Each structure stands twice: as structure tokens, then as C-alpha cells.
Amino acid sequence: MNRTSLRCMECHRSYGDDAPLYKCPVCKGLLEVVYDYSKQKAGIRQKWSARPISVWRYRELLPPIDQFHIVSLGEGGTPLYPVDRIASHLHLDELFLKNEGANPTGSFKDRGMTVGVSKAVALGMRVVACASTGNTSASLAAYGARAGLRCMVLVPEGKVALGKLSQAIVHGAEVVTIDGNFDQALRLVEEICRRFPVYLLNSVNPFRLEGQKTLAFEIWEQLGNVVPDAVVVPVGNAGNISALWSGFTELQQLGLTEKLPRLLGVQAEGAAPLARSFKSGRDDLTPVRNPETVATAIRIGFPVNWRKAIRALRESDGSMVIVSDHEILSAQKLIARGEGVFVEPASAASVAALPHFLEEDVLSSESQVICIATGHGLKDPAAVLSTPQQKRLVAASVESIVESFQLAGS
Fold first, then answer.
1. Phi, psi of 200 (to 5 degrees)
2. pLDDT exceeds 80 at position 245
3. DSSP H or E segment with residue 83
4. What letter does residue 260 receive in the DSSP assignment?
5. Whose C-alpha in 7, 182, 308, 407 is 20 to 30 A from the C-alpha of 24?
6. Quick check: 143 and 117 in contact, CB under 8 A?
């Protein structure tokens, strides 16, 4: 079985993986899972191709967890759509949408949660917890229920889409709302997990990000063992963009690709601390105290994984842009009406960012581009319903309907 260890990305100290550990005990830096790739190269493509497409298809590059500890709902294997109408609209040759809303609870969080909750079970933990803007709580509640674990969730009062909150509740999570924002909720749940035998499953947990990196492996396989020119990622807590970079670099370390993509991040105007820091070339981060955006999934003022994200962006020669709520909602309609895919506002941010990257010459018309759609549109229908609707009340008669649809003479 593959052996792993944990390494601090700041002071480079190493630790075992047989006890709950989220940050370096010495310098409080973020931890990364480290593998011995030399033992994984032989026949890895053949091993993968012999299994169904899913997160656990790539088990050689996942933490060593016994089969009977694995908690799965069939996550991964999400569709990669060519979106030709949007590509034509933007004058791009090749554009794809990776629809993570097709995961069991409707978001990319399931990739990380299957690994994170499996690790919790392997460690003998009986209680799991998270702070959430919505998708994390929905995913943790489902996987916690699957594992028979007690699940505790902290969410900011009035800031979580009902579609996501209802998932957490129906799966039996104990939900507590706080009079504060997500960043405050995360600090509180981190303290609780430090003081009590409760396993933290926010993206500060390095094992959760290991599941999310499988998104890179799938993209590579779905493109015919090819890496795209660029991947555009909505950024909230910044775990997904760093996990993607980890996945692509592991493909390179295994000799499966020489090329690496540029990672392009996007944040919403009212919650863009990382984008502003990156664009200014700084090595620090100024938090947004009261983040606000219609894209609730990325409404985060202090991304806990910002250092990992900055490293991924710099190493990939990447870039970031900031988009407005208006641009996000326009992109959401464009995706739905042009391609038949309903994504939540945060997902639409990746498409909303494309004109900016083209204008800044970060992308060219010849670029092969993947936009990550992180969650299903039914997660957050309020954004759609709050805009003027194209519906009409008419009398219950054929004549009224014909007149309303202007069918006469057509």
C-alpha cells in the first residue's frame, strides 16, 4: 500500500499521517500530503483504465486507506462538455465546461469529502465538523451520514443558500448558525476541533484536498491523455485551485505529461482578497471583513489556502481576475440558454472571467480552455428567481396561450 506523510509548506517539517493534524504544530503552516512517486509509475495507466471512472480510480495517488474504511457515494466521473456556442461567442477555438454539479450532492466538494471522511473513519473518529458557505456542509452531511458519523456544521446566519442548507439538514447534520461570517465560523470550528475529538473537514484538512486533485486526472483522461492550455477556476477558500495544480504536477512527475496548464483564478468583486493580492504582486493578504456577492459559494473574505493558491498561480504562470455580480449572472444565463447546463452563480464566474483573460492576452483564440463549474444551479436558485422573470399570466384558454406565444401565422 502507498505510504504518505505530511509536510509543512512553510518550515518543511514532516509528520506522520496516523493522527488528526491540520496545520504544522511548530509554525502553524499549511500541510501537504507527500508520496513516493517512484513506487507508483509502473503500470499506473493500465491500473486506472481497468477501473470505473471515479475518485477512487486513482487510488495510487490517494492516501492509503483500507477498502473497508472507504466512504463513497460514487463521486467523480463528471461530464466534460464542449461548449461550442459560448466558444463561438467569445471567439475561442476550444472551450470545455467540467460540470462538477453532477457529483452526488451537486458540487465538487464530494471529491474531497469521500477522502476526508474515509480518513476520519480510518483514524477512528466518530464526530466530524465544518464551517460552510453551503456546499461543504451539504457534502459533509451526506458523507457523514453514509459513514454513520455525527456531523456538526457552523454556518453564517442568513448567508447560506437554502438549497444547500436543506441538504445538510435532511442528511441529519446538527446545524448551528452564528451571528458572523464564514471566516469567523471557520476560526470557531478550528478551535472546537483542537479542543475536542472532532475531525475538521474544511479544506485546511490536507486529506480533503487530495480528493479534489482527481479533477485534474479526469480532465487529462477525458481530453485523451492531454493537458489543456488553461483551466479557469472560481476561487473561494482557494483549496480547489491548489488541488488542481497538485494533480497536474503529479501527472508530470509520473511521466504522463510534459506540459502543464496555466491556472486562472476568478473571484467576485465583493469577495476578492486573493485576486487583489496576486494582481498587486504582494506576498501577503488583506482580508475582506464583510464579503458580499451573489456567488455565495465563493463569498469568503479570508481564504485559508491562499498561500497554496499563490504558489500554484505563480508556478503555473497563472493569473487572476475579478468579476462583478452582473457579469456572473449574465454568464449563468449564457451557460443555461446556450448550452443547456444550469450552474450556480459561483460556477458561472469561470465563464464570466473569460472576456477579461482574453482582453488581457492571458488567453488567445487558439487556447484550449477548461472552465470548472463547481456546483449545480439548483443549489442556489434564489439568484435566478430574484431577477425579472420572463413569465406571463394568461387566461386558461387556447386562444390566450396562442396570443401570448404569438403562434398565429407562424
1. -80, 130
2. yes
3. none
4. -
5. 182
6. yes
DSSP 204: T
Would you say the C-alpha torsion 323, 326, 330, 333 has a positive or negative sign?
positive
Residue 186 grid coordinates: 471557520
SS3 98: strand
Q: Measured between alpha carbons, how far is 107 from 274 in angstroms, rounded to an integer?
A: 22
Dig out the grid coordinates for 211 from the structure.
480528493
Topology adopted by domain 80-104+208-385: Rossmann fold (3.40.50)
Q: What is the rounded CA–CA span in Å between residue 222 and residue 98?
A: 10
Q: Identify how many contiguous H helices and E strands the chain contains and give both numbers.
A: 16, 13
Strands 174-178 and 262-268, sheet pairing: unpaired
The pTM score is 0.93
Q: Considering the chain, what percentage of its residues have pLDDT values greater than 70?
A: 97
pLDDT in tens, 126-171: 999 999 988 999 999 999 999 999 999 999 888 777 888 899 999 9
Handedness of CA 260, 102, 351, 237 (dihedral sign): negative
> Are the CB atoms for 292 and 270 separated by under 8 Å?
yes
CA–CA distance, 125 with 22 (Å, rounded to integer)? 15
The pLDDT assigned to 404 comes to 84
| Contact yes or no for 329/348 (Cβ under 8 A) | yes
102 contacts: CB under 8 Å, gap ≥ 6 = 78, 79, 376
Task: Kindly state the helix (H) or strand (E) to which residue 319 belongs, with its residue range.
Answer: strand 319-323
